Amino acid sequence: MFFTDQQTQFFRPLTGKYREQIVECLRLLYTRLYSAQADYSRIVMREQVVETFQEVITRTPLLDLNEDETGLPVRNEREQANWILNLLMEHGWIERQVDEATLQSSYAFTRVGRLFTQPMVEATGGRFRTRHRNTRNTRNALQSFVARGEVYDLLDAYEYSERIISDFSDVIAELEERKRQLVREVESQQLVQRASDEFFDFMEKRFMPDLAVRLSADSVEKYRDEIQALIGKARRKQKDFKGNAERALRKAAPELLQDSKASLYWMILDGIESRMHSASEIMLPALRSALHGFTRRADIIIRQLSFSCSGRQSELAPICQKLSELSGEEQSKRLAATADALAGINIGFVEPGLTKLRSNPIHRVVNTGVEEHGMLDKETRRRLYIEQAMERAFAVNNQALREYVVKALSQGHRIQSHNLPINNARELLMGAHAIEVGAAGNRSSEFHFKVEATGQRVHTDYFDLTDEFTIELIESDYAE
Q: CA-CA 20 to 30 A from 321: which of 166, 187, 241, 356?
């Protein structure tokens, strides 16, 4: 079934007034992960995903705005980006992966999420699409281009090379999903026969026809040198050949041209070379590691289930029955004798070179739960808007405060706090905070403010009684 586990409400993020923002977030994240803009040598952290979503939220409008126009959003762009990320993770579009060695968390599409996002990208990208996706087709298309000079063969090779990366990501995600599914089924049913049958069924129907060919006959390592040689031949072609190819490429695929002064011909060749390098050096080892982890996990589970279901398990029930018929003292005596028989002692010498004093790491407890809030009513939105407006109105910027005091000093070097000019509400707020210019963080390398209390309290037009301070601009002794 499709609508199970996290996918119960899989399409819920695509409903509501934020649906356009969420779709654009999925498209841009897909482009950053799997297109020519992707950096496959780096893992995608939460901060990078949030920044990507913030970029989308800035330029994407909301839909179905039937409320009052004065009702501003209660979340800023960063809070909205975090909310969208948590929503997509909750409903099975994006998943968080933890490296067991470094305990670093990375974020990527789930297999189903990537499959549903790909048509969204293709529907708006306006790019050419072909259906063949393998390494040999990249080699064959390049051979045809070098021999005949047909630019569509070069475009096919460029497309095939991109699909190689996508295929690797799809297979790795499927292996991880199979591994989790195997663990879930074993935990829920504890059936060794079914677990082993499903494992061997996957190996026979999925691994042998596809993965085995991908790792052998269609391996990127097998064709990498040959493809690199064909790219070198294309680069060494005569100027007339490359000039004709450049003009034909600009007509056939103008959407690939990012800089009018750059060569589209060289850009495509460099892109194919970069993708083959990423597929060989990064994605293929990742696929082998995922396959090794899947087979190892299946082997461990099947061995454990086989051990628990075989041997002397059938004798456990009669033994427990006999123990239940004995007295409490006799039960304790026999259990103690069994414990002594099982408690073996292993004496040996410790290697001094392997002895290290390690400090226990402090594990932070982080609450990652997501609480779903309902829609706020109009009165609540009005109150939040007033609070935000009041916070902005009474906010004091250190740089603006310094400029106000410098302007008040004019040609002088000293002024009394109650003599500061006040012409509007903003200057009244600045005057109330004027003594803050004497803080250590507001000093420069040449000048700083010196604020001293006179010990007197004065009456002003705005305050019944206020302490009086002297604000003086001092030049540092080491200034030139």
A: 187
Question: Which pLDDT score is estimated for 189?
Answer: 55
Task: Give the model confidence (pLDDT) of 360-381 as tens digits.
Answer: 667 777 666 666 666 777 888 8
Whether residue 293 is found in the same domain as residue 174: yes
SS3 415: strand
Give mean pLDDT, residues 145-164.
87
445-465: pLDDT as tens digits: 566 778 888 888 888 888 888
Q: What are phi and psi of 479, to 5 degrees?
A: -70, 145
Tell me: do 150 and 261 sit in the same domain.
Answer: yes
Alpha carbon distance 426, 386 (integer Å): 18
| Residue linked to tokens 């011909």 | 265
3-state secondary structure of 469: strand
Residue 21 CA to chain centroid, in angstroms? 17
Phi and psi at residue 40, in whole multiples of 5°?
A: -75, -10
109 in a structural domain: yes
The angle subtended at Cα 127 by Cα 123 and Cα 132, nearest 5°, is: 95
Report the amino acid identity of residue 385: Y
Q: Are residues 152 and 256 in the same domain?
A: yes
- CA 168 vs. chain centroid, Å, equals 19
Q: Please tell me what DSSP assigns to residue 92.
A: T
Residue 351 predicted with pLDDT over 70: no
Q: What is the mean pLDDT of residues 383-408?
A: 78
| Model confidence pTM above 0.85 | no
Q: What whole-number distance in Å separates Cα of residue 293 and Cα of residue 54?
A: 35
